[in-house]
Amino acid sequence: MVRINKIVTKTKSKKAADAKATLENFVSKIEKELDSYFSNEITYAFGVSPKEKKLSSHIWNHIKEHNLRPAKRLRGSFVYYGYKLIGGKKEKDILRAAMSIELIHTALLMHDDFMDQDDTRRGLPTTHEHYKTYHEDNKFRFNSLHYGESMTVNVGDIALLAGHEIIGKSNFDSEKKLNALNRTLRGIVNTGFGQAYDITLEGKGIASEKDITDLHLAKTAIYTYENPLHIGAILAGSKQKDLELISKYAIPGGVAFQLQDDILGLYGDPIKTGKPAHSDLRQGKMTLLIIKALELGSKTQQKRLKEIWGKRNLTEAEANEARKIVRDTG
Asked: Do the record's keywords include Lyase (predicted)?
């Protein structure tokens, strides 16, 4: 039995190492494409006057800097490997399509950080913080916070629409492009509804285990796993039965991914996760960890966790208290 366990462990470790190497290989490819794309957009930035063109170039520079921060490129990789899974051969074209999803993801992160009021993303200022500082450095009038948040909505929208444009301008045949664009658009629309549900659950401060599972299905399972895999498969000419088979993997995979992400959000290293320490706690994020701790904890534990959870000026000591309560309640 010991020998079998060692073999299983070794096999799992090798598969994990192979998967990591495969993803790293993809990351190096797509980031070259992204860098080239951004350089072109910065050079030819829109502007009817030199002043407007200068601001447009600044915006593209920020989108580039934000996007090229160290990242896993998971969603882009799913577009790429979803395409390969169905037998697609257009390497350059599918890298461009995968790049579009990474740009869309950057847009949603910008908006998400604004909604969560996070100050950093992957160790550097979030977009609303970047433009708040830009306002202050340039000594603009009115409120720097409002300027930063307004620019985040605008810059995020630019990145979001530019991402969709990349698919539209790709070299795939018209029917495949249209189907992929429709799938992308509907996936983002549904993600928006999922985000609205997430924000509403946070506002209520009450949720069941089913509510949390439904939320993960509505957001992460579709957005992070199913949608990009389907886009890649569609561009390769997949049949409906292919998409259905992919969904059987993607949906539970996406839920598992989000559960793991919630664990990292509470216990992970901010340097590795790219998220500020105890951001989820401070935000009052609805997770299965919190719901179960409130369900299984003693009255004292429940009371203390409710005091800490969602506290905007949360201290590290209080965050550690919450972590201990979650751990002690199983």
From this structure: no
Residue 89 lies in a domain: yes
CATH number for the domain spanning 155: value is: 1.10.600.10
User: Do the domain assignments include residue 330?
Assistant: no
79 and 104 Cβ atoms separated by less than 8 Å: no
| Phi-psi label, residue 123: left if phi above 0, alpha if psi -120 to 50, beta otherwise | left
pLDDT tens sequence across 19-58:
788 888 999 999 999 999 999 999 999 999 999 999 999 9
Domain that holds residue 38: 27-171
Evaluated on CA atoms 36, 53, 149, 123, the torsion sign reads positive
CA dihedral 131, 134, 138, 142 (to 10 degrees): 30
In a domain, 108, yes or no: yes
What's the average model confidence in pLDDT over 255-281?
87
Rounded to an integer, what distance in angstroms lies between the CA atom of residue 136 and that of residue 94?
41
Query: Residue 222: how many CA atoms within 13 Å on its side-chain side?
Result: 20
Tokens of 256: 């598992």
Give the residue carrying structure tokens 């203390």: 304
Q: How many domains does the chain have?
A: 1
- Helix or strand or coil: residue 120? strand
CA angle centred on 322, ends 263 and 301, rounded to 5°: 120
> What confidence tens digit (pLDDT) does each residue in 48-73 have?
999 999 999 999 999 999 999 999 99
Q: Give residue-wise pLDDT tens across range 214-224.
A: 999 999 999 99
C-alpha to C-alpha distance for 189 and 293, rounded to whole angstroms: 32
260: in domain: no
pLDDT digits over 146-178, tens only?
Answer: 999 999 999 999 999 999 999 999 999 999 999
